[in-house]
Amino acid sequence: PSGGSGQVNQVVTHPSQPLTITASDDRGIRYLDNRTVCHLCDLTCVTCVTSPVSPVSPVSPVSVSPGHDCSLRLWQVCQRTCVQEFPAHRRKHSEAVLAVAFPPRRALSASAGADALAKVFV
Description:
InterPro entries: WD40/YVTN_repeat-like_dom_sf (IPR015943), WD40_repeat_dom_sf (IPR036322), WD40_rpt (IPR001680), WD_repeat_striatin (IPR051488). GO terms for molecular function: armadillo repeat domain binding; calmodulin binding; protein phosphatase 2A binding; protein-containing complex binding. By secondary structure, this protein is mainly beta. It has a single domain (8-121), classed as Methylamine Dehydrogenase, Chain H. Helix content is 0%, strand content 47%. The chain contains no helices and ten strands. The protein has strands at residues 8-13, 19-24, 28-33, 38-44, 62-66, 71-76, 81-87, 97-101, 109-113, 118-121. The strands form three sheets. It has a four-stranded antiparallel sheet with strand order 1-2-3-4, with no helix packed on it. Strands 5-6-7 form a three-stranded antiparallel sheet, with no helix packed on it. A hairpin with a 4-residue loop joins β9 (109-113) and β10 (118-121). It is globular.
């Protein structure tokens, strides 16, 4: 995507909308329109490098981005803003949050961390 200078670490697509989201080493989360192949916007996580980008919830317009600073950030997809940031895991072996996921039919999210914990958020 335009404007990105960091390595892309993960790419996910929205389950029902023509939207692709990428996360990269330059602390950027980028939204792309699949129909027009246009770059829609950039979001920046100023406190951490974003490794995996979250999947987008199939039941609500939110996504979650895990960071190397042990926190999770809840993003409102439509407004493209961070609406909540919270600590989720503890750092271990220079890693923090390893993965996040949404179930297909519930308004829940789950995260897995290097601290050997899996957490479910309602």
